[in-house]
Amino acid sequence: MPLFLEPVFQERIWGGAALKSFNYDIPNDSTGECWAISAHPNGPNIVKNGKYQGETLDEVWRNDQALFGENEERPFPLLTKILDANDKLSVQVHPNDDYAQKHEGEFGKTECWYILDAKEGAEIIYGVNAESQKELIHMIDHKQFDQLFNKVKVQPGEFYYVPAGTVHAIGAGILILETQQSSDTTYRIYDYERTDKNGKQRELHLEQSKDVINLDETSPNTKPKYETIQGHSYTQFVSNSFFTIERWIIDGHLDYSKPYQYCLVSVIDGHGTVRTEQQSYDVEKGTHFILTVEDENIEFNGDMTFVVSHE
Q: Where is the Mannose-6-phosphate isomerase cupin domain (predicted)?
């Protein structure tokens, strides 16, 4: 039986109301993040169905490892979000595993973005225009941010891989499906001197940022693999030691074979059903669930687009 999950919403200074387009009952019009598939302590999802109904995903992960084909104790590795950047996010960088475990006590944060929607002219920041560590530190210390940050215009349907150490920011007017390591460690470099509702500027982390920025990360694009499978459009955006990200665009019936012992599934458009064994479940834009070891003979039916991620 798939694990269907109740989303967790996070208010953000840059958030808006666009998550309503996923039929979510968001708490307010400053909702920046939907934590859609999460076992992180800062926002674990509650299971909506079956024998685990009412339990959090981290509880299920800890207490029934066989459901995920696991035989080692470790945190749930991935986190799926939808981000509504009504305003631009801070410019930031995330540490890798070694640095994060030493200084923060959790995973590092390699992530990736699938652009769900973007206003005309919307852009992200990806990478820096510095040739050396010395130049990087000089530009940060002298607040030469206009020259430092590399800007890239984006369009719906594009995919961007953001390894740990990459300076990045989501610009205003962009809606993103983000898959990341299960970490909540962010080092802010620049926040446009904004203040929160209490009139305070958010903390910056310039020394940590100088430590972890990787000057080699300058190109935001991967090389997707495109196939037609059973008459449907399949794309593999990225596959590495952190995660594999795939998109399916289906119209009709798909006999689905899990590519991993368990898979995270997010329906990003349309509606239909997913069937496992003898039970069928209605799904629609905004539905998120996990196919576990127990789910076999999987069928998707409908007119929908969904993104699958796994280790």
A: 235-310
Contact 188, 203 (CB under 8 A): yes
Give the Cα separation of 178 and 267 in Å (integer).
13
Per-residue pLDDT tens for 175-215? 999 999 999 999 999 999 888 778 888 899 999 999 999 99
The mean pLDDT of 229-235, rounded to a whole number, is: 97
Asked whether 104 and 62 are in contact (CB, 8 A), the reply is: no
Cα distances (Å, whole numbers) of residue 85 to 34, 90, 278: 12, 11, 40
- Report pLDDT digits (tens) over 125-146: 999 999 999 999 999 999 999 9
- C-alpha count within 13 angstroms, C-beta hemisphere, residue 166: 23
C-beta of residue 265 within 8 angstroms of C-beta of residue 308: yes
DSSP state letter for 201: B
Annotated catalytic sites, by residue?
A: 188
d(C-alpha 145, C-alpha 139), whole Å: 7
Mean per-residue pLDDT of the chain = 95
| Domain annotation for the chain: domains and CATH numbers | 3-212 (2.60.120.10), 225-310 (2.60.120.10)
